[in-house]
Every structure is written in C-alpha cells, then in structure tokens.
Hints:
By secondary structure, chain D is mostly helical. In chain D, about 85% of the residues lie in helices and about 0% in strands. Chain D contains 3 helices and no strands. Chains D and E meet through helix 1, helix 2 and helix 3 of D and helix 1, helix 2 and helix 3 of E.
Amino acid sequence: MRTLKAKILAMLALWVVWMLLTAPWSGQEAIAGAIIAILVAFLPLFPASLLGDLKLGPKALVYMVAYFFVFIKALVLSNLDVAFRVLHPKLPIDPGIVKVRTRLKTPLGRLLLANSITLTPGTITVEMRGEDVFVHWIKVAATDPESATEAIVTGFEKYLEVICG
Amino acid sequence: MMRKVMVMLALAGFAFAFLPLAFMAGVVKEPGALASAYLENSPRDFAAANVVTAIVVSYRGFDTLGEVAVLFAATAGVGALLTRKRLGVSETAGNKREATEILRTATGILTGLLVMFGAYIFMHGHLTPGGGFQGGVVIATAVLLNLLASPGARVAHGVMTAVESLSGATYVGLGLLGAFLAWGFLDPRTLPLGTLGALASAGAIPLIYSAIGLKVGAELSGMLEALKGDRE
Amino acid sequence: MAIDIAILATGVFMVIAGIAAIATKSLLVSIILSGGVSLAASVVFLLMGAPDVAMTEAAIGSGLTTVVFLYALARSKQADDEDSSERADTPAAGIGGAS
Amino acid sequence: MADTVFGIATAITVLGLALAGYRFLKGPWAIDRTVALDVMTIITTSLIVAFALFSGRRIYVDVGMVYGLVGFVGVVALARYLEGGL
Amino acid sequence: MTAIIGAFLSLIGALFFLLSGIGLIRMPDAFNRMQAGTKATTLGSILFLIGIGLQKPEYLGRTIILVVFIVLTNPVSSNALARAAHGYRKHIGARLEPDALAEADEAAEVASKTTANKEAVHGD
C-alpha cells in the first residue's frame, strides 16, 4: 500500500515536471509524458518508495505551506547573516562543529532536515549518525547538545514531524 | 622542466592561432553552398526543426551507426580489461568509505528525475538541442549517482544487457525498414512526417534517437560499473 | 561586441586553467582543472551558437571524462597501496597541495 | 528600463563568477578548488539562462539544465574521491 | 510591469552571486567558504532565475524546474564536500573550536579497539 502510494506520487511528480519542461502544451506531449512517467516510476531498477513517507492529510498540507514560509524566511536571514560576516572588515567568525539531536526517523524527513540546516543561518550539516547530527557552526553559541538542538533543529523539526513522520 | 616549457609554448601557440576565431563569432556570414543546401532541404525533407539532428540521423545516418559501434567496442574493451583478477585488487569494497545517509536519500529522489530528463532530451532531439548521445549520458549520470552513493551496490546486469541489445536491434531494424519502405538504409521517412515542431514529427527520427539514447546509456553505465573495480 | 568580450574572457580562463593543469604536480588538481577547462569550453561553444556541441561537451567532456579519470586515479592508487602493503588511511594521500 | 537593469544584473553576476574563478585557479587545496567549482557551476547555469533570454532562444535553457546536473554529479564524485569512497 | 519587477529580482540575485564570490575570496578555510558559497548561490539563483521567468513568462516552467533542482542538490553537494573536508581538517588548517565529530570518531575508535582486545582475550 505504502509502495503503491509512493509510486503514484512519483508518477504524478514526474508528469508535472515533464509538462513544465514542454511548455507550449499539446496532447501528444501529455500522452508521451504520461507513458514515460509510468515507465520510470514502475521501473524495478529505481525504487521510489521514499515518497511514501509523505503524509497527505489536511493538517499535513497546512504544515507544508507553513514550512515553506519558515524555510524561505530562514534562507533570507541566513543570506543576510552571510552578507554581514563577509562584508564586515574583521570577519567575525568563530567556527566549530557541534552535535545536535533529532527525533525524525524517516529518510525523507531526515534529508529535508539536513538540507534545511545547511541553508539556515551559519550552519552546515557535516554528518548524520543515527539520532546525532553533526553541524558546522560559523559562530558557535552553545556547545552542549541540548541548547544547540534548541537553537538549530527545533524550529524545523516540529513541522517536519507532522509532514513526514 | 624542458618538457613543461615546450608544452606551455605549444599551448600559447594554439591560443594565438585560435584568437581570430573569437572575433568572428558575432559576424553574420552567408553559409556555404553545402550548409545552405542542408538548411533549405532538411525542414522540407524530414520536417525536423533541428537541422543538426536531421544531418546526424538521416543524411549522415551511417556514420552514426559506426559511432555507436565504436562506442560499443570501447566499452566492451573496458569491461574485459577491468575485471577483478586482471587488476590484482582483492577486496576493494571493504576499504571504501560509505556515503552519508543524506546522499543516499537524495539519490533515491533524484534518480527518477534524471532518467526522465534523459528521456526528454533524446525524445526531443528533433526539436531542441541534444539527442541520443546526450540523453544517454544523462541516463548514465543517474546510474553513476547510484554508484557514488552506495559503492557496494550491484547494477542489474541482465537488465542492462537486455536494454542494450534490444535498442541496438531496434536501431538496425528501423534502418532496414527504411531500406524496404523508403529510399534507403536508415531513411526515417517510413512514418508520416507530421507538422514541423510537433513531438510526433520528422518520421522515425524520434524512435531512432530513443534507441540510440537507450543503447548509449546502457553501454556507459556498464563501463562505469566496470571502472568501479570490484566486479566478479 | 559584448559576446566577443565574453568569448575572449572565457578563452583566457581556459588557457590559464590549462597551463595551471600542466604546471601542477598533483594529478588530482590536474583533473579538477581540466574539468574546469571543459566547463569553460562548453560555455564558449554555446556563445558561438552551437547548443548541440555545447551540450555534448558539458555532458561528456566535463562530467563523464572527469569521473573516468577519478576512477582511474583511485584504482591505480589502490593497486599501488596493495603493492607496498600499506593502507591509504592517511588523509594526506589525495589532498593535492598548492600548485 | 527592464533591459538596462537586467544588463547590470548580468554584469554583476559575471563579476561574482570571476571572483569564484580566481579561487578556483588559486586553490590552495584541492578541496577549495572543488568548492569554487561548485559555485562556478551554479553561477554559470544562471548565466546560460540569461544568455538564452538575451538571444531570444528558449531552447538554450536545456543546455543550462544539463550543465547544472552534470556539475552537481561531478562535484559529488570529487567529494567522494576526496573522502576515499570511490 | 512584471518585466521590471523581474529585472529587479534578478539584480538582487546577482548581488548575492557577487556576495558568494567575495565570500570565497575572503573566508579563511574551506568550511567557511562553503558556508558563504552554498547559501548565497542558492538564494541568488532562486531570485535570478525567477526574475528571468517573470521577464519572459514562457521561460517560467523551465526556470522553476531549475530552481527546484538547485534547491534540492546544492545542500547535498556541500554536505558531501563538508564531510570530505573534515578528513583533511588538519591539512587545510581549519580552526574548529569544539570539534564534536572528531571526538565522536575517536570515541568510536577506542570502543572498537577495546572490543577487539576483549575478543582477543576471549579467544585465548
């Protein structure tokens, strides 16, 4: 059931991408795109069961939209932070690698969390081992895992837990 | 030291020799007799919006068949040379460091997207730049990403060989069909030409390019897997 | 006019990267720099109005060839390590210093 | 108006590309060059799309997409080589 | 009107591209260069490409795909690079004040050594 849901979601996503690629739409392109999408999604070589973790209830959809805006805000803030640090004549950096913890279990959720951490102010994910996430922080503000988790992870985790478990 | 100086002198000479080319790019010139003949005839003959594709697949179709054969010979040679015994490397997979979980998950998401993009490129070879070879390389890139993410993984050999043989047979079969139904070997006018700019146009060119793309993709994937080094 | 300057600048970058690729002692740095040359060559082809060739150069010249070189380097290094019965644990093995 | 502003934007982007290219040529370590290659690939992809807009040929965008994709896989291959996983 | 908005969006994106270039030049080691490079090019390409899409609406579909692709892949490649750079942290002279990852690696190594010793003792 979960695999079938993943395959159908992957198929729909691939078809949408195909339609965006072939911009002046025509019937031929739509049919060809549907055939290709079905072939690729049901190919035994490339399992696409990752998307099965995505929840599609109304609450999850609301959280997805909210997460999108939180992500955009964090991305803009991180760029302003980079601009401040790069253009400051004294380069105010104090780098280090800290350990934070995550409660997310599904691969998709962990990928989204890692990518979000990389694109938010001053942090890059270096390594993920089990529930430990090692993060390069350009200005270390807290070295103990609890407060570092509070500062880096919690903002995204509460959305991602709803979106994909 | 002497060798390096000579190489650098040769490089500087090449740069000097090609300098005039840089200034000719923006100048619009009349195309030569051959070029204008191609430009004039290919939309009428084959209804292909991309003239380069019409030349590669139809006017010079036999050359392309030869190129595919050369590529096949090269990858077969690489595969035969790089077996585990020949290299004398015993357990290479044990020494390799595993990739992160992030890369593995991202590979699982990206693979389908890349395969579909490769299919887009070789199916639209008669409309947009690109074609069988480029699309095949993009598909091989998807396989490469899987090999990078999990070095221990095995590519399904049977599927690869089947895809390669089937697409090669399809390519030659379409060429023979052209010899019987149209003007000669590899003539794409076995199917209706259709209107210029639509997906189902230019006769059999999209089908031929799809066969070439799948064949090139399977061949290059097999070559990369052989280069990975720890195959039986 | 602007296109001429762009082609010229990309060509200068290609020549400098090519010279640096020859001058460096590390094979890895050589591979990275020649990958950069291929990427710049692809841009030149596109600027000169040959999108098919540009796509081929980007896909084969910079992607596939670089990866094949890297695989070959890794394999030959493994063979060397097995010969001298040392393992490549030290990070210094492949860093590639200043050119 | 829009054309002028976009021309200035392209000129600024080329300047950023030149700075990244300086880091690519200078190094000092292979890992620095790879980081610079990553940045250069993305900036060049954007510039190819801008060139498609200037020359009015939408099909050039496809070249940019192949370029970005191949650059990503090349950088990942370099990173895997550097950490000893190839 | 949308054309002018798109052009100004592209201009802001171009400034972020310039910022990434300056960051690559000024930052002292590979980790910090990655910080500047990844973040600035991601936001820069989003703004630049969406700006182009607004100037010419028929480009919008392909630029959206390109933006999604870049947002998905750019953090992944910089994560792979950061992990590779961590293996060379002493070589490239990276200053990492608390280095939790190195401590975890050392702890894992010590643990594996002690278990190996125990097994050896057991075998005897």
